[in-house]
Amino acid sequence: MSKKAALSITGVLGLLCLVSASGCSTVAGPNLGLLAFPIPVSPYFQKLPEDYFWEHERYDRMPVLGPITPGSPEVALDPPSDDQVMRALEKARPVQGGLPLLQEVQRVNVHIVKEPVADYVDEPRVYPLVGPAQLHHAHYKCIVYFTEVTRVGWPVPYTTTDEDCQEVIYIDKDHLHMVGNVDPGPGTGY
Hints:
Elements: H1 3-22, H2 43-58, E1 64-65, H3 82-92, E2 103-121, E3 125-127, E4 131-152, E5 158-172, E6 175-178
C-alpha cells in the first residue's frame, strides 16, 4: 500500500471518529426530522403573544377587593397607568408595523392627562364564582398630547412633524367589592 493511500485512509477514519464523537450524526431516541432544527420567527409574530399575555395579566382581569367600610369615601384608588393608556391608544390608532427606511411613524413628547368622568358603586348582588359583591365603576377620560413624526425614505426621502396631535381615550376601570351579607333578614339590627 502506498503512503498516500495509507494517509488518506487514516484521515477518513479520523474524520469518522470526530463526527461520531460529536453527537451530531447519531440519534439515540426518536427522530423529529426537519422539526428538530430551529425555525426563525419574525419579531412581529413573537411580540403578539407577549403583548396578549401582558394585557391579560394586568388589565383584562377584574379584581375582587375587600368590602367598602362605612363612612369612607367610595372613590376609585388607582387611575389607569400610562402603560394602559398607551396600549389602548395603540389599539385605537396603531403606529407599529411600519417599514424601516420606507415609512416610519413615531409618537414623541407624549403628555397624558387623566380626568375622572364617573365613579359610582352599584347595589350588592350575587355574581357567579364570586358571591355577593358590589360593582364599582370608575370611568376615565385620558387625553394624550404628542408630536407625531413621519419619516418616508422612498422614493423621495422626507420627514413631516405634526406637533399638535391629541387623542382622547376612554378607559373603564371596574372592580368588585365583597359584601358580607347582602340581605341580612328581619331582626338582625341592620
